[in-house]
Amino acid sequence: MKSSQPFTDKIIANLFNTLSLLWQRPGFLIGLMTIIYLAVGLLVVTQYSESVDEPSRILYAERSLDAYFGKIADLQDEKGPFYGMLALLGSKGLVRLFPGWKPIDGWHYMTFVSFVVGVYFFYRLCRRLVDPAPAIAATLLFSTQPHLWGHAFINPKDIPFMAFFLASVSLGLEMVDHLPAQLHTSGGKLSLQSELSALRRELASEWVSASRRLRRLLESLGVLLVALGLSYQLVQVLLAGLVSQAYTAPAASWLGRLFRRTDLYADQIPVQDYISKAQILYSRMALLTCIGLSLACVCLALLIFSSVRNRLVRLLAQPRVLLAGCFLGFCSDIRSLGPASGLLVAIYFLYKSGRKAVPFLLEYLGAGALTIYVFWPFLWKEPFNHYWSSLSEAAEFPWSGLIMFAGKIYSQGNQPASYLPVLFTLQFTETAMALILTGMILAGFYLVWRANLRMDMLLLGVWFVAPVAAAILLHSIVYNNFRQFLFVVPPLFVFAGLALQVLWNRLKRRGILFVPLVIFVLLPGLYWNWQLHPTNTSITTAWWDR
Questions:
Q1: Cα–Cα distance for residue pair 145/142, rounded to 1 Å
Q2: Which of 104, 312, 357, 450 has the CB geometry, 3.0–4.6 Å to 353, for a possible disulfide?
Q3: Is residue 280 domain-shared with residue 144, that is, in the same domain?
């Protein structure tokens, strides 16, 4: 009888080889880091108390969720509710899963989860430019900064925005890089005028060859849709007049009898309430009718124009475009500055593909716009006006406190131009600042000498410099350190990743030499996280005052 020992030894050897190779895979270390961070968060999350802003954010999230069930309350805010709604739902589930937690603990853990999501996408952003080892090192350096780690639990506004801004940019750039290669080639160029002329000829030919019944139906629906839009304001005015006339009509008249039959307490309610109710009902009916007519027109147009249908199918066959568009919307539903992430992606896309990028950009921006609308109830009634009011309020936030900087008291908007730059240099560890500055110098060289990295360096520079320069030049209101600018921090640590890549190359890509160096770089952040926990966010401008 043959022994089964050799077979068992073979299985164990194969398992050992598999495990030994697993850690070398690029995604293994970031996956392990993510799991460790989530586990550490579970251990320490209950040590944080409720911050000042959190009750109002939770209330706003509750009101926004109620809007989906028809309970429209005061939803005006300079920020979107997407993260708040997600965190509120997640926190309720976590409190049930961990009975010893308070509701605020679940809320804090959801904020920390958003931070870990940002860490993951920071790694993906780094991987576009550097090897796995320096990317992991840069990610560890970024995620262990005491200033960020403290905010990661108790800041439900700026940490989620930083995380989703990172995700939006990272997925957008990956979308561009992974689209079909022929999109980025210039072979077989045609002028834009020639392409439009060819498309017009195709559409004219398909219209002529379509059945007469389909053409008449599409024309009729189009006329109805245009008529509905043009008559909307007129009908609202006519409704106001009709309701006013019915309200004041003699009780014995047929109009008066009809009006009082529908409401027995008509004399006790102001006429303006009836007018508003009638106009709101008509608005809802007109909106539903408009949506129905639009969908019918789109379906008929796709039946008639096969060229448009084929182009649409090719667009929708790119899931990366839809995913990146959705995250653009999520980011914008957290803060109204979110579309800036889409602007960075659009610049990169147009640089690589020129006008060939336009159809994909339209789908990308369309998916983003639809996501913004769906997950921000405040925008449902007047999307453009309400979004603009939120953006305006965010740009000129009504905060009238005083700030101390370098031993002097300043009113808002009057702080010196050095305020933000100095804070950035004070809030990160010394090793991080050394790598960031080295990486910036390298980026300058790459900008001049490395054409394949030129646009990446420009985008990272614009990502950081543009918001900070705008805040300085426009004397924007900045308070509580630079927490409103956490979303511009990631590109700084990507620059640090460039410096780590050079060190990785100099050490001949030997992990046995690189690991001690990384530990040395991380030690200041790890030390101060341990010393300051759980008050990491109290590292403020007071340090500069001393």
A1: 6
A2: 357
A3: no
- How many angstroms separate the CA atoms of 198 and 253, rounded? 64
The pLDDT assigned to 470 comes to 85
Angle at 328 (CA atoms; ends 323, 330), nearest 5 degrees:
95
Position 37, amino acid: Y
3-state secondary structure of 187: coil
Angle, helices 319-332 vs 339-353, to 10°: value is 150
Is 195 found in the same domain as 160? Answer: no
Please list, in sequence order, all residues whose beta carbon lies within 8 angstroms of the beta carbon of residue 504, skipping any fewer than 6 positions away.
Answer: 130, 131, 133, 134, 514
77 close to 387: Cβ distance less than 8 angstroms: no
Q: What does the alpha-carbon distance between residue 143 and residue 154 come to, in Å, rounded to a whole number?
A: 15
Please say whether the beta carbons of 532 and 150 come within 8 A: yes
pTM of the model: 0.77
Please state, in angstroms and rounded to a whole number, the distance separating the CA atoms of residues 205 and 59. Answer: 57
Measure CA of the first residue to CA of the last residue in the chain; give whole Å: 82
Prior bond of 319 cis (ω within 30°): no
* pLDDT score, position 481: 78
Q: Look at residues 361, 328, 53, 322 and name the one whose alpha carbon lies nearest to residue 164.
A: 328
Residues 113-138: what's their mean pLDDT? 95
Please indicate, yes or no, whether residues 37 and 170 belong to a single structural domain of this protein: yes
The DSSP code sequence of 334-396 is T-TTTHHHHHHHHHHHHHHHGGGGHHHHHHHHHHHHHHHHHT-GGGSSSHHHHHHHHHHHHHT
Dist CA 418 CA 468 (whole Å): 11
Are 490 and 162 contacting, i.e. CB atoms less than 8 angstroms apart? yes
Shared domain check, 128 and 68: yes
Residues 6+ apart with CB under 8 A from 82: 330, 333, 334, 375, 376
Q: How many domains does the chain have?
A: 2
Task: Identify the residue with better confidence: 382 or 227.
Answer: 227
Is 385 exposed, middle or buried (CB count within 10 Å of its CB: 0-12, 13-18, 19+)? Answer: exposed
pLDDT at 15: 47
| Count of residues in the chain | 546
Tell me if 166 sits within 8 A of 118, measured CB to CB: yes
Pair of tokens at residue 304? 């008639």
Phi/psi class of residue 406: alpha, beta or left (left: φ > 0; alpha: ψ in -120 to 50)? Answer: left
Domain that holds residue 71: 9-179+387-545
Radius of gyration of the chain measured on its C-alpha atoms:
29
**Hey, what amino acid is at 121?**
F
Of residues 511 and 449, the one with the higher pLDDT is 449
Find, among 307, 362, 308, 352, the residue nearest to 180 by Cα. Answer: 352
Task: Encode burial over 288-307: b for 16+ CB neighbours within 10 A, e otherwise.
Answer: eeeeebeebbeebbeebbee
Residue 161 near residue 331, CB atoms below 8 Å: yes
